[in-house]
Amino acid sequence: MVAAPTVCRLVPTKLTKGPRPVTHIASGDLYLSISNLWKAFGEFLALKDISLDINEGEFICFLGPSGCGKTTLLRAIAGLDLQTKGAVLQDGKDVSNLPPSERDFGIVFQSYALFPNLTIEKNIAFGLENTGRGKAEITARVSELLELVGLPDQGSKYPAQLSGGQQQRIALARAIATKPGLLLLDEPLSALDAKVRVHLRHEIKELQRKLGVTTVMVTHDQEEALTMADRIVVMNQGVIEQVGSPTEIYREPANLFVADFIGEMNQITSAVAANGDLSLGSTAFSCIAHDFAQGSQVVAAIRPEDIIPHEAGYQPGADNSNCIEVQLEEMEFLGSFWRCHLRNEGFGNSELIADFSINAVRRLELASGKPMIVELPEDRLMAFAQPEAN
């Protein structure tokens, strides 16, 4: 017998990595608190000293590559895999060693986990029947939930008679049936096709806002995290690399891993010149302020969409001197923009990738093989420590 979806109420903490200070949240009541949490499987450390605070009503995404520990952390919150050491607080109560059935959460898995031999109504009612509610109350709650997820006429059907997207909505309805304090989503959209995923992620976010339920979702899909989350927790090799809003994670990455993992990023080996400028070949470029000493070997990074195109012969003014002449070697049409491959002899073998709007390409009459001037804006050019050799 599969256990009914449980319910758990959680509190917010801060996230730290080694000496990194715990990350606090600006507003709202602390709801889920994870403190100095470790998880080992034999000799393998899946989670290493994780601390994180989550506020009531927040939508949090755990994002990272496969094997980074995001699902392990979700399962530790749920009590499905108890931590090796560390603490989990739910609504101010230490639940670190409680079984899942004694925690206040609802959970939705990638595989839906609906009972194939039960109707949709009975699937949703399953957890409610174990709470001592009367039949009339359960029937009313099931009807309310079916209406909430937009499937009011599907109650008498069986899971196999519904599409994947409809089944996931029913799994969501079942998870929130008991009005849990916390909703856990373990890659709930990854088994769906692209169009259904896009549609359903908006529905889930809208439902979460409507209910005000604190939600933690695991995903490896960057777009999913950026569009759905209030804050994103970027994980790698069992640690938290950065926590922030989607805008902060994308525009202000804490390190090269985050910069490289989220979106596209140009990376050019560089050295720190006088005044903190970055030497790219024989040219010094102003950049965002950093703490690297002069002469340090670093990685200069800039996103393709931040590169500004100018026609050949453009004369920069004193306030935008971060310009360089390049050869436009190749252009790829990607619908809403052109991805352009740029080369400059001074960069050695490094290639710049720039995304130019259709209007800019048309206005400047850009074409493969033509020279042009590009600007690397000072406030978008970043310096990161070089990655450690494995």
Automatic annotation (TrEMBL):
Residue ranges constituting the ABC transporter domain according to the UniProt record: 32-262
Any single Gene Ontology cellular-component annotation: ATP-binding cassette (ABC) transporter complex
SMART domains noted in UniProt: AAA (SM00382)
Keywords attached to this entry: ATP-binding, Cell inner membrane, Cell membrane, Membrane, Nucleotide-binding, Translocase, Transport
GO molecular function, one term: ABC-type transporter activity
Lineage: Bacteria, Pseudomonadati, Pseudomonadota, Alphaproteobacteria, Rhodobacterales
UniProt-recorded name of the protein: Putative 2-aminoethylphosphonate ABC transporter ATP-binding protein
Pfam family name, one: ABC_tran
Family per similarity comment: Belongs to the ABC transporter superfamily.
